[in-house]
Amino acid sequence: MTTLRLEAFFDRPAKAYGVFQDRFGRPRRLFNADVEPSFENGVLTLEENFTFDDGAKEQRIWHIEPKGDGVYQARANGVIGTARGQVEGPALRWRYIFALDIGSRVLNVQFDDFMCQQTDTILINRAIVRKWGIRIGDLTLVFIK
How far apart are the first and last CA of the chain? Predict the structure, then answer.
């Protein structure tokens, strides 16, 4: 079994495909993203350019720092504070607060984010999204390089 290392997985551009489902399991938003990685001075930067099924576009830039012993911390636009994660084998679990744009409102939601490397070229990301401890939806994202 492989041990996930984000800086090794994102060693070249990737494509991502995803869906956000509401708490009843209904698909609410489909999207894809082009992911451009770079690694400088010990920091992995992921530039994600999303296109949603309604034509909307969004960019998120992650700055991810490996801290040793499978620990990562990250910052990104929309993330409040710092995301922290721990690797166990092929999986990484992140937890963070995210400012989610919903129409004309912004909700601060909690992400419980689980990434698992399936092969050298596939990484699956599954997140549970909560507000006030109540599950509002699930996010599934597949990275392919």
Answer: 19
pLDDT over 90 (residue 85): yes
What ranges do the domains of the chain cover? Answer: 6-144
Interatomic CA distance for residues 47 and 36, integer angstroms: 5
- The stretch 78-99 carries a mean pLDDT of 95
CATH number of the 6-144 domain: 2.40.128.20
- This prediction has a pTM of 0.92
With CA atoms as reference, report the closest residue to 56 among 81, 30, 83: 30
The Cα–Cα gap between 84 and 94 comes to: 6
